[in-house]
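Margin note from the TA: students keep mixing up input and output lines. Inputs are the sequences; the output is the structure of the whole complex. Example:
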Amino acid sequence: MHWPKLSSMYSKRTLSIVLLLILTSLIACKKEETGPLPYYGQTALEGTDTVYHQIIPFSLLDQDSTVVTNASLQGQIYVADFFFTSCPTICPVVKQNMIKIAEAISDNRLAFMAHSIDHRRDSIPRLLSYKQKLELDDRWHLLEVPEDELEELSASYLTAAYEDASAPGGFDHQGNLMLIDWDGHIRSYADGTDREQVDDFIKKIKRLLHEMDHRNE
Amino acid sequence: MRWIIGMSSAILLVSCGPEQSYGEQLYQAQCASCHLSDGSGLRGLYPPLYQTDYLQEHFADLPCIIEQGMEGPILVNGREYDQPMPAIVGFTDADIANLMNYLDDAMLDGKRQFVTPDQVIELRQGCKDSYE
């Protein structure tokens, strides 16, 4: 009668461990879904203030030849990515997913900043035609990035984008989507080719809009 | 116990689903990023394939289009598209045959004759400089 007792003890213990795990994950998930989003990038202390990583100052031309700067986006949050219009690999998937985000959230306080890394081929008329073909609304800025600013700007978004003759289409870059808040801080990240990550990213954008509503309380 | 085994095998069967054909695997890996998984295309940028007159009429051009890519405006189901398609490198004749058979089944009426690798070789010999 030794074995049955041991096995029932074993199963009780297993059961309690499983229950504990479920409970922990429930609590962990719940914690993730409320409250302010985290800040990405290096943080520094200035006196008693925590200073979070910020996107560097930029001044870029969009598809309508309008100058877009950090200041012109004030009062808005935005989703940023790096792409090029003739990109044969991941860009189409990332763009589909960005469109999905734009369809899910119609709020005018959300902008889209798609940075072209192909300074040679992606002229302003070409960016405009790309925007029209994709039927993108006025919240979208398809931006020209001067060659000498690309590396520093993409690094500031904590993503990689550079020219590489051996890569398909001539450029190597990551299909990341970055969520930037009203102060230029990176507040969320997603692999723009991953449907599940993008669905989660949509929830994070809604949370950040909510945070924006309540930031002066 | 029997109940648990029954349930879990049922769940496994449902979650695994039917296996993809090789042609479908090639489509999902090489074509779906622009033309989408169901061939519906992406707005006015990437043309659809599903139930299109263009695919219907240019079915025999597929080996050449895949090998050479395409450039210039085309009309698909009455709408104009003008986004270059890159050449797809690394497809064998058998790959192209598999892909064509999948496209016929999934995107058109599936009534065409089964395409063989030998037919693909033959079709490729008639490649033109460009396709419109």
